[in-house]
Design goal:
It is a single chain. By secondary structure, the chain is of the alpha+beta class. 37% of the residues lie in helices and 22% in strands. The protein contains 13 helices and 14 strands. α8 packs across α10 and α8 crosses α13. The N and C termini lie far apart (69 Å). The relative contact order is 0.18.
Amino acid sequence: MRLSGIEGGFLRAGLPGTIGSATLYTGKPFDLAELRSRVGERWGALDRMHQVLQPPPRSAALSGHRWAFAGPFDPAAHVTACAEELQSLLAAAVVRRLPPDRPLWQLLVPKPAPTGEQPLVLLAHHALLDGSSLTTLLRLLMDDPTIRVRAPKPAQTPPRPRVPFTNLIKEWHNSNALGQPLPLAPGECRPAVTVTRLDPTVMRSARRQPATGRGATLNELLLSALAGALPTCYDALSSRSCDAAPLYARVPVDLRSPYEAQTLGTLITAIRVPLPVDTDSPADRLRTCQHLLSALNRRCHAHRAALPVLEGMSRAAPWLTTALTRRMTRPDVNTAVCTAFKWRYGPSRLHGRRLTGIVALPPLSPRASVNLALAQNAETYTLTVVSHLRPGDSQLIADTVAEELTTMAVMSASHGECAVESAE
C-alpha cells in the first residue's frame, strides 16, 4: 500500500521522525509480561500496528515507500524495559531511528521518575502514527477503555469542502512565504530535549487572560508565550527593524472527521501563523494569537480541498514531495511548531495504576528551529521543548516560556484584585 503524501513527507524530511507520548502512573513498577499481554490483546487486531515500511522499488525520486503486512507483531520485541531515566530516554529517542525491520513503534518501560511515578513511553515514526493516534492507543490500553477502533464507513465520510481557487492560492502563500530564521550560526545547532512541569495555579490564572476576552486555549497560550520568549532568548530579535520579515510557527491540526475520530495513521495538517514577537504587551500578544487561530477552521478547509491534488503530485512525482517538504521545514519558512494536547477522558488507570501526568514528545525539527508541546492531564501541565538550536537553548526557551506564562497569570490576578476594589 502506497504511503499518503503526508506520510511520505515525514519520511522525506531527512530526519529521524520519531514522536512519542510518555504517561506517568502511581503505584509499583509495571510487570512486563502483564503489559505485553495487554498490548497483544488490545492492539493485536489493529492493522496499522502490523505494518512495516518497504523501501522504494526504484529511485526515491521516481517512486515512494509502501506499507506492507509482514505478519503479527511480537509484543516481546515491541514492549521492553530499559535502564534509562525518562528525560535521557526522550532525549535519545528524538535523534534515534526506530528499527526498520519491524513496525515502527515501541512501548518502553524506563526507570521510575524521581517523583516515584512509573513512566511508560510510546514511540512511533510520524509517518506511521500522529499524536491523535497515540492518544487512541493509550486509551485502548486503559483498564476501562471507552472506545473501539474501527474503519469509517465510506458513505458516512463527508465530502471535501468546496473552496474558491483564490483562497487556495492565498493559503499556499500563507504557508510558504519566506520569513526570518532565528539568529544562529549553523555550526551552533545541536538536538536537545527539555521537559518542565508547569505550576497548575499559574496555568489556571493565565488561561483567564486577556481580562476582557473569553479566556485562552492552551494553543493560544503556548504561541503567545513563545512569541514573548524568543526576543528574550535572542537579543537580535529585540532590536530588529519594524519592517523585518516575520518569524513563523506552525500549529498541527487533526484532519479527521467525526466519523474518523479513532482512525489510526497520520491524518494531520499544519497551519502557519506569524509570531507576534514585535508586540510588547503579553496581553496584546495573546489577543493577536487568538485572532490568528480563530481562522484555523477556515484555513483547514483549504488544506482539505487541496489534499487530492497533493496526493496526485506525490504519486506522479515523488521528488516534488521531497522538494516541498524540504522547503516547508526550512528555518526561514518555519521557526517553530507549537502543539497543545489535553487528556479529555477523565480519571484513567492502567493495571490499577492511576494516570497522573502526560509528556508529549514532538519530533526533532531541522537545524535552527524548535518544536514545543504543552500537555494537560487534569491539574498536571507539562511543557516539552525539542530544540535543534544552540546547546542550552532548549532549557532556556522552556524557562522563558514558563516566565511568560507566570507574567500572564500575575496580570490576571492583578485584574481580579482591581475588579474587587472597584466593586467595593
